[in-house]
Amino acid sequence: MRFSPLDAQHRLLGAKMVPFGGWDMPLAYSSGTLAEHAACRTGAVVFDVSHLGTVRVEGPTAFDQLQTCLTNDLSRITPGRAQYTHLLDKDDASVLDDIIVWWVSDQVFDVMPNASNTDRVVAAIGGTDTTATRAVIAVQGPGARSAVARVCPDAAAVRRFTVEEIQVCGFSCVVAGTGYTGEDGVEIAVPNDGAAVVWNALCEAGAIPAGLGARDTLRLEAGLPLHGHELGEGISSLQAGLEWVVAWNKPDFYGKTALTNEKNRGVDRRLVGISIPGRRPARDGTRVLDAAGNEIGFVSSGNFSPTLGHCVAMAFVKPTTTVGDSVSMDVRGNLIGGVVVATPFVAKQK
């Protein structure tokens, strides 16, 4: 089990700690997941996301190295920008991980894999695992930039999907306009010795501590994929509805041949959103049936939506399924009805 540099702060705040991706991380604080979720939709919250990996790839070959490995095209952006991309299995084009690349400076890239996939990503792309040297703090919500500005105006000014090296509370940090809630905000990679200082300053500035429980309900409302659910073994970028991260014009990238073959023959399933009345969620693995009672797929993620006041789910279903179709889900032997809807379920708050 690994521990965040902010572990002591979480315990002082009375967080409920749970294992996640090999890390001991806060699920929720005393206010609870629903309150933390609402705070992100209406104000500002601060998450510890130090369990995410950081792989530094640098040097004169770094750009070409990443271009060969990852699906998206780094030539679409420039130093000081961030890009969402996929690492695919070379043989079947499964999404081994979905990644944010922070292009820190000319020949320096910080590749940000999911918690349990860091070793896999290093093996595929090379680079140096620097996860143990820093904490990553995410400030999210319509009030996020106001809260960050009370601590560091320069960090608050970092625009969406841009990256800057900035002094925050006297520590040299990398700040990116990225996040995983569907709301505005920034993520701050801060050296371990500055983690508690920056975290405490953000809390004092009005950002409410939030745990992984709220992070999951927020990303689900925003229709954002979670590796191991909407992405993973046997799931391609095309099935997940994320073809926009695939640069078909590149000469090659890992898994391109297999993905091209799938594109040419057509996917046999695709990811959709389902709106479900009531408070009884259809959890991952739940069977999805069409109006005639035929099984057409399964739920990949499902939960109660605190913002909407009813349940929502994402599911892989037959590609002929369209928005507006009535479906039902077999929840422990009971059929619960739902309707296929477009995602996100909840749009970014103004």
Q: What is the CATH architecture assignment of the largest domain?
A: 2-Layer Sandwich
Give the termini distance in whole angstroms: 39 Å
Task: Give a short account of the largest sheet.
Answer: 6 strands, mixed
Question: What percentage of amino acids are in beta strands?
Answer: 25-35%
Question: How many β strands by DSSP?
Answer: 20
| Widest beta sheet: strand line-up | 11-12-13-10-4-14
The fourth-level CATH homologous superfamily of the largest domain is Probable tRNA modification gtpase trme, domain 1
* Poorly predicted runs of 5 or more residues: none
Number of helices: 9
Quick check: average pLDDT?
Answer: 97
Reported by name, the CATH topology of the largest domain is: Gyrase A, domain 2
Radius of gyration: 20 Å
- Taken together, the total number of domains comes to 3
The SS-based structural class is: alpha+beta
* Element order: H for helix, E for strand: EHEEHEEHEEEHEEHHEEEHEHHEEEEEE
Using the alpha-carbon principal axes, give the shape: globular
Keywords for this entry:
3 domains, alpha+beta, Elongation Factor Tu (Ef-tu), domain 3, 9 helices, Gyrase A, domain 2, 350 residues, six-stranded antiparallel barrel, six-stranded mixed sheet, Alpha-Beta Plaits
